[in-house]
Design brief:
Layout lengths: L18 E4 L4 H7 L6 E6 L4 H16 L5 E6 L4 H6 L7 E6 L2 E7 L4 H9 L5 H14 L3 H14 L4 H13 L4 H7 L17
Helix pairs in contact: 2-4, 5-6, 5-7
Length: 202
């Protein structure tokens, strides 16, 4: 359950499941452990901090727009000074992104929406990467009917994303050849006969 609305929060975001208030008691569970499943951004703030009231609603709107690909945890440094000290918070607002239990990116100070949007984009995996992971999982499970169409589609689309092509294409190929390619390879029978029964000419 969300705590009472904090200063600087966008009221329209108060019931969004992936935006929550955290304190020292639940930081390990809500941030460290949760970040092993999805990136968690921690907004270190305080009620007296005017820049915090500017940045808070921006963070909430931009994270809400990602639809759960990244989650937001808001920590009041006056309520949980031990966590602020643990992460060497010297000025607020301070924003740290956690993935797999560790800080992977951060910034300090109120920033415009465009900056926040671009920063968050580095944390949330692109759709192509998510599609590849789903296809890889299907391939490992032996579900070629799901894996192969997804791999064909991904390989067709990657040239439009050169920033991802180099990293994802080798993985997509390792996950298994597309069905069409396998069909062509299987078009000849042992002994040199084609699938239709014609003997290969010497």
């Amino acid at each position: 359950m969300r705590q009472p609305l904090q200063a600087g929060k966008d009221p329209s975001m108060d019931n969004v499941a992936f935006i929550k208030d955290v304190a020292a008691a639940d930081f390990a569970t809500a941030v460290i452990e949760r970040s092993r499943t999805v990136p968690v951004v921690v907004d270190f703030w305080a009620t007296w901090c005017a820049p915090c009231r500017v940045l808070g609603p921006v963070l909430e709107r931009e994270i809400t727009a990602l639809g759960g690909k990244v989650e937001l945890a808001k920590l009041d440094t006056d309520v949980s000074p031990e966590i602020a000290a643990q992460y060497a918070i010297q000025g607020i607002p301070a924003v740290k992104a956690f993935r797999d239990g560790a800080v992977v990116s951060e910034f300090v100070g109120a920033r415009p929406a465009a900056f926040v949007r671009d920063w968050l984009a580095t944390l949330s995996p692109p759709a192509e990467r998510l599609a590849l992971e789903a296809a890889e999982q299907a391939a490992r499970a032996g579900d070629r009917a799901v894996a192969e169409p997804a791999l064909r589609k991904l390989l067709d689309e990657l040239p439009a994303r050169p920033d991802l092509d180099r990293a994802l294409r080798p993985r997509a190929r390792r996950a298994g050849p597309p069905a069409g390619r396998r069909a062509r390879r299987g078009g000849r029978r042992a002994g040199g006969r084609r699938a239709g029964g014609e003997r290969r000419r010497g």
